[in-house]
Amino acid sequence: MEGTVVIIGLGLIGGSLGLSILKGNPKATVIGYDVQEKEMRLAKAMNTITQESKNLQQEVEGADVVFLCTPVFQTEQLIEKLSAWSLSPHTIVSDVGSTKKRIMNKAQLFYDKGYTFIGGHPMAGSHKSGVAASKVILFENAFYLLTPGKNVHERDVDRLKSWLVGTKAKFFVVDPQEHDEITGMVSHFPHIIASSLVHQVKKVHSTQPLISRLAAGGFRDLSRIASSDPTMWRDITMHNTDILKELLRQWQGEMNQVIELLNQGDADAMYHYFDEAKQFRDNMPILQKGAIPSFYDLFVDIPDYPGVISEITGLLAKQGISIVNIRIMETRQDINGVLAISFQTEEDRRRGESCITSTTSYEVFTV
Ligand SMILES: NC(=O)c1ccc[n+]([C@@H]2O[C@H](COP(=O)([O-])OP(=O)(O)OC[C@H]3O[C@@H](n4cnc5c(N)ncnc54)[C@H](O)[C@@H]3O)[C@@H](O)[C@H]2O)c1
Ligand SMILES: O=C(O)C(=O)C[C@]1(C(=O)O)C=C[C@@H](O)C=C1
Asked: Tell me, what's the pLDDT at 289?
């Protein structure tokens, strides 16, 4: 497709969406806006967008599609703001928020003006946030849930899907209430469980400092998502309180059942409890796509000339700094590219940053 897309909120999801849209529609103009100037600059340097926003209202009013990629409280505010502007009749506004009921209620402001709003939620992500963590393959094979609103034309839903073809996601239309019940169970509720597990370990940590060093394996797997952005999760949980309260009540019942099994000391019953969970989970179509390993990344804005990568790896090697991964992010001829270098530790990244800034004039970013 040719035309103009505006992305508001250039974080993990906004940035990954920009990359996917440009992959599927190389001739598109993708304008990006973020309240953080730094994120906007990095988004442009990484080619997740083709240009930074100069006049958001004008750009939104002339766009083919506008994606709201901010935490959901901000998305509600943006819906209020944009609905007061004069959008063209062909403009589709969509979002990527993890909740849908409150967003769709707020979207009535668009419908009252005859504007087209299609709620969206790509079910893939990471505990990392910010545009630096963007990946073109983030949504590949993931479910991309859509909540079009009653009077939205089928042809507009198809037009939105065409813009999103580069995501390689599987689109699925759902009702907003059903959306919040399902994601409440499989996404929002696990997040609370992960955070509460970390809280429990933290309480013991003051009297037993060894605990955090021994908490590997299972604890690490279960608690990974507790490292996600607290602003995003504050907003999600505040949007889905009733469903989450009910799920937590059920969880208390589940825990009481486990206490009862332990009280009984019934080894067979305990075996069956674990086995039933294992059988069910082993048959779930859990996809591995979308997870981003947590390394310490450094981004270097490099000119596009032969030998520039070996120059940088050579400088790092000379100082004995090991790297675990190095990649160029979506460069095109005649413009600068961004070299993403992953280190194993924060200390290595810090040394890498000081090595590059003290021996070259290249700009470096960390997140
Ligand atoms: N992270 C995930 O795993 C994931 C997955 C699917 C959907 N989502 C949803 O996507 C949305 C974005 O999440 P993310 O992980 O990309 O967050 P993020 O923190 O990486 O990015 C959000 C960006 O929005 C910007 N922003 C905030 N308010 C703004 C405003 N008023 N105008 C312009 N920019 C503004 C922030 O500066 C930030 O750069 C959230 O609604 C979240 O619920 C997240
Ligand atoms: O992989 C992760 O870190 C995520 O938490 C991603 C995850 C999820 O719960 O599956 C988180 C919130 C989004 O709304 C969608 C995806």
From this structure: 37
The dihedral through the CA atoms of 264, 270, 272, 276 has a sign that is positive
Boundary (domain end) residue, out of 155, 175, 195:
175
* Half-sphere CA count of 44, side-chain side, radius 13 A: 15
**Mean pLDDT score, 2-13:** 97
List the residue whose alpha carbon is closest to atom 15 of ligand 2.
123
- Regarding whether 200 and 74 lie in a shared domain, the answer is no
Domains identified in the chain, total number: 3
| CA–CA distances in Å: residue 178 to residues 158, 187, 204, 233, 240 | 22, 14, 38, 19, 12
- Atom 14 (ligand 2): residue with closest C-alpha? 98
Q: What are the pLDDT digits (tens) for 260-304?
A: 999 999 999 999 999 999 999 888 776 333 333 446 789 888 877
Domain end call among 282, 308, 339:
282
Clarify whether residues 116 and 97 are in a common domain.
Answer: yes
Together in a domain, 225 and 109: no
Q: Is 125 in the pocket of ligand 1 (CB under 6 A)?
A: yes
Same domain for 12 and 112? yes
Q: Please indicate, yes or no, whether residues 170 and 253 belong to a single structural domain of this protein.
A: no
Q: Which domain holds residue 72?
A: 4-175
CB half-sphere exposure, 360, CA atoms < 13 A: 19
Q: Which two tokens stand for residue 108?
A: 């009535």
Residue 295 has a pLDDT of 62
The predicted-structure confidence for 202-231, as pLDDT tens digits, reads as follows 998 888 888 877 776 778 878 989 999 999
In a domain, 50, yes or no: yes
High-pLDDT (> 90) share of the chain, %: 74
Asked if residue 71 has its Cβ within 6 Å of ligand 2, the reply is no
Q: Does the ipTM exceed 0.85? A: yes
Does the pTM exceed 0.95? no
Q: Is 287 among the domain residues?
A: no
Identify which of 179, 225, 227, 247 to mutate to test ligand 2's pocket (most ligand atoms within 8 A of the CB).
225
**Which has the closest alpha carbon to 362: 320, 301, 311?**
301
